[in-house]
């Protein structure tokens, strides 16, 4: 097959047709041995995918190296891609998703109490802005709009509130 590959790289169309024919006969059992009986029908698809890859990547073949090693690498990559595409993945019907997405907040209750206690040291509006932007993931623009203030004013309020909280826990004054 190496001789046919070299001739086809040099422009011999007849050698290229013969190479593709021999590769087809070689690759069918190669993939059939690797596929489970449930996926045996995919062997022909893998052969065609590999032949297409050989065609599109034939210029990457190093003439000084064995052809079958290069071919096996291409075929192996096509086989791995096939296995990844057809891997069995567990699925959950949408009707049964409640247990999957249900959150157990009991462990977070103490954390919420701690956050509420810490935020009680700043004004209620500042505390709410900090809670929305830092804990709930809202943007500055969203939090500012909820309080009827500009983004700049919201940023300043959040900054001053966080600075006061840091000073308190660092042992400094507000």
TrEMBL record:
Residues 114-165 form the RNA polymerase sigma factor 70 region 4 type domain. GO terms for biological process: DNA-templated transcription initiation. It holds the Pfam family Sigma70_r2. Keywords: DNA-binding, Sigma factor, Transcription, Transcription regulation. Gene3D superfamilies: 1.10.1740.10, Winged helix-like DNA-binding domain superfamily/Winged helix DNA-binding domain. Transmembrane segments: none annotated. GO terms for molecular function: DNA binding; sigma factor activity. Residues 30-87 form the RNA polymerase sigma-70 region domain. PANTHER family: ECF RNA POLYMERASE SIGMA FACTOR SIGD, RNA POLYMERASE ECF-TYPE SIGMA FACTO. Belongs to the sigma-70 factor family. ECF subfamily. This is RNA polymerase sigma70. It comes from Devosia soli.
């Amino acid at each position: 097959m190496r001789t046919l590959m070299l001739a086809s790289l040099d422009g011999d169309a007849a050698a290229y047709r013969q190479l593709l024919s021999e590769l087809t006969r070689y690759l069918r059992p190669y993939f059939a041995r690797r596929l489970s009986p449930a996926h045996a029908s995919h062997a022909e698809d893998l052969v065609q995918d590999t032949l297409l890859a050989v065609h599109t990547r034939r210029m990457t073949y190093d003439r000084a190296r064995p052809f079958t090693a290069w071919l096996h690498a291409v075929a192996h990559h096509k086989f791995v891609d096939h296995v990844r595409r057809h891997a069995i993945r567990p699925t959950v019907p949408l009707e049964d998703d409640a247990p999957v997405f249900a959150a157990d907040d009991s462990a977070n209750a103490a954390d919420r109490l701690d956050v509420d206690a810490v935020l009680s040291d700043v004004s209620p509006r500042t505390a709410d802005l900090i809670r929305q932007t830092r804990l709930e993931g809202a943007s500055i623009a969203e939090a500012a709009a909820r309080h009827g203030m500009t983004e700049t004013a919201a940023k300043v309020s959040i900054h001053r509130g966080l600075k006061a909280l840091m000073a308190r826990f660092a042992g400094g004054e507000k």
